[in-house]
Structure formats: structure tokens, C-alpha cells
Amino acid sequence: MKGKRTKSSFDSLRAYWLELTGKPGELPRENRGFNVVSLYVMLLLAILIPLDFYLGLWEIAIGLIVTEGMIITMFFLSRYRGLHRAGLIVYAIYSYLLVIFTYFYNGGNAGPALYFFLLTYLLQIAFTAQQLHWVWTGLHLILPVGLLVIEYAYPSVVITTYDSKSSRFIDLTTSFPIIIICVFAATSYLRKAYERERAAAELRARQIESQNKRIKSQNRLLQKANREKIELISILGHDLRNPLNAMTGTLEILTKEDLSSNMKKKLNGELLIAAHNTSALLNNVLAWVSGQIKGINPLLTWVDPTMIIERVLDVQGFIAEKKDITIQLNTRKGIKVLADAEMLEVIVRNLINNALKFTPQKGTINVSVVEDRAVNECTILVRDDGVGMTDEDAKNIFEGRIQSTYGTESEKGIGLGLFLCRELTIRLNGTIWVESELGKGSVFFLTLPLYNGGKPDNPAVLFSKENVSHASH
């Protein structure tokens, strides 16, 4: 309990001291330094004045009283008016006059005046502007030596006021502790100020270093993103130019050449597939670019995944017919998931398109919707018996590695579709993964939360057959 009271008293004194001298963030260091010096000098004079009266040094005591009043005035002007620079100059000049006066009226070199030159020098060097240091140094070399020379040449100008040996002893023994205490207080203040500034400088250095690391990391990410975008543009330009050239050539043949009906049908089918693949590629790129520019913000409502799947198959079905691929649909209507309808359509379209791309002719694709009320989840599975992939490819397939890929019928892609699926799935609070074995096909799993309440707008209107073509855009 006693320790707590002592700490509380110390904290109160420290707070009062900071209130007198000014807080570090409130006043400049030079201003606070002058306030500290003023307080110490006021305390010093408060001790010396009664001592000089006791020793019979009336002239010096009266001079110190005048000095005390001047110091108090300068302190208030510095602390509450910010006039510390002028105060420092006045203090320096007055201290010289006071010490010179004390020297001649208090025993010359036999008194303590010369020792006070050391104190005034320390205070002036510590708390005045650096350009004045040479001035103070020169004056403190000239004045003491000059006083000693004057006393040596004209000893009568020095007044010996000590009436006994004990008076001089008391004067000197009280002056030295005062000087030592003032020197200690000034150097302690400077040391603490230095430590605070060093700690602040180290903190700023750490902050700058941390900021530089963040900037370097951001630069690396930006450079990586720029490289990926440049690579994407390069691959996209190549993979769009070739099919467009092929479609243009096919249209020229259909227009200019006299072909048989079977040949025209074949070319029309190839033209349709090329246009579909190019459209799918563009849709993925545009969705990715839109997400990069505007951000991807889902509008969550209840969605029937079966309706989404049927809608996608209405558009993708002709590719399955072209490759003679059987699509088995194992779902039931009425299951509701919490999702964004357009985002879910993009995911499902890419998963089915990926399965069609890597499944050979006469293959089978199975699309299932499984509801699990126990964990409040719905899982959409897209299973194919296509070419499959290695464990390494399965691990990295959603990472968005931009490169040209080719399906079983040379269908082109750039690896963006499945990366887009992962990005959209994250925003729908779902999970997506793949299980695959090389040569034996792949199974893609998309898990979404079930819808459990609320009254959002009925999405069945959006997914009606009449609106399929319009909503796909």
C-alpha cells in the first residue's frame, strides 16, 4: 500500500513537472529546455538569496532578488507565450553581468563566482542554438581570464565581504552542491531528451523499413500481375486470332464455293463449335476483367441449382451431340442454395464446358446435385470419363496458370475458366475441388450452403425458358 502511495505521489509530481515545462509533443525541445533551465535557476536563487542575507552579502542578495523576478517573468513568457529565444539571450547576457558583479563584490577568486561560469556555460551550450555556441565559448574563455587579470593588476577593485573564515567556507560549501545539482539536472534532462529522440528515430526507422518491405512486396505483386496480364493478352490474342481466321475462311468457303449439303452441314457444325469455344473464352475473359476492375460483389438469394444446370445444358447440348457424348443428369428440383444466380451459372457452365472439352467421343458426363441437411450443404458434382490429370495438375488446376490448353478435339482454352470458378466460389461462401486419375476421368465438386429462410424475389422468373437467351448475356 505504501509503495502504491509513493508511486502515485511520484506520478503526480511528474505530471506537475511536465505541466510546468511543457509536454514533448506540446512545445519544441529548445522551448522546453529553456523552461527547465528557468525552473532550476529559480530554485537555485531561492537557496542563494537567504544564504547571502545570512552571510551579510546584502548587495548580492538584492541583485539576486531582481534576477529572480526577471527569471520568473521570462519563464512565463516562454511557457505561455512561446518567447523562449529572446529569453535565452537575455538570460545569457544577464548571467554574465550577475557573475561579474558577484566576482567583484564577493571576494574575487576567493569566492564562488568563477565556478558559476562553468554552470552558465553548460546551460548556454545545452539549450541555445548551435550557431551561438562559439560566442558562448569565446566569452567564457575571455571573461574569467579578464577578471583574474584585473584582480591581479588592481586588487583593490575586489571587495572582500567575508567577515570571517567560516563565512567563506559556508559560501563555498553551499555553492558547490548547488552547481553539481544543476549540472546533474541539466545533463539528465538532455540525456532523457536524447533517449526519447533516439527511440523515436528508431521507431521511425522501423516503420520506414516495414513500409519499404510492404512497398517492395506490393511492387513484386504488381510486377507479377502485370506479367500475368501481358501473358494473358498475348495468349488471348493468339487464341482468338486463329479461330476467328478459321471461321472467316469457313464462311468464305460457304459463300463462294458450291458445296454438297453434307459438306455444308459439316462446315456449319465446325463453324458453330469454333464460335461457341471462342464465345466461351471471351465470356471468361470479360467476367475476369470485370471482376478485376469493379470487384466481384454477389447478390445472394435462393437459387435452384437444377434450373441453372438445365439452362446451361440447353446451350451446351449441341457440343455433346457433336462429340456423341452422353450427359446424365441426376438432380431433383426444389433444392435451394444461397447463391448469386449469374455467378453460379458461370461456374456450372465452365465445369460442364471443361468436362465436354476433355471427354473423348462417345464418352459420358454425369451431373449430380446432392443435398445434405445434416451439414446444411448442397454439392454439385460434374463427373467425366475423359483424359483425367496427374496429382500435380489436380493440385494446381485452380491457380489460374495462363497457358493455351487443348481438348480432345483440339478445343482451345487459356486456363482461366477454372480459376474464375474458384474466385466466384469463394465469394459465394462455397468450396470447390477436383478428384482425378490420369486416363480415367475427373470429378469436380462444388459445395454451396443451403438456403434456409427469408423471402427474396422468386428467381424462377429469371430462369424460365423464355428468358434463357436474354439472361445468358
From TrEMBL:
Entry EC number(s): 2.7.13.3
TM ranges: 33-51, 57-76, 88-105, 111-127, 134-154, 174-190
Origin: domain of life: Bacteria
SUPFAM superfamilies: ATPase domain of HSP90 chaperone/DNA topoisomerase II/histidine kinase, Homodimeric domain of signal transducing histidine kinase
One Gene Ontology MF term: phosphorelay sensor kinase activity
Pfam families per the UniProt record, alphabetical: HATPase_c, HisKA
Entry keyword Kinase: yes
Coiled coil, from the record: 191-228
Keywords assigned by UniProt, alphabetized: Coiled coil, Kinase, Membrane, Phosphoprotein, Transferase, Transmembrane, Transmembrane helix
InterPro entries per the UniProt record, alphabetical: HATPase_C_sf, HATPase_dom, His_kinase_dom, HisK_dim/P_dom, HisK_dim/P_sf, Sig_transdc_His_kin-like_C
CDD domains: HATPase, HisKA
Reactions the enzyme catalyzes: ATP + protein L-histidine = ADP + protein N-phospho-L-histidine
Histidine kinase domain sequence ranges: 235-452
Protein name, UniProt field: histidine kinase
Organism: Parapedobacter indicus
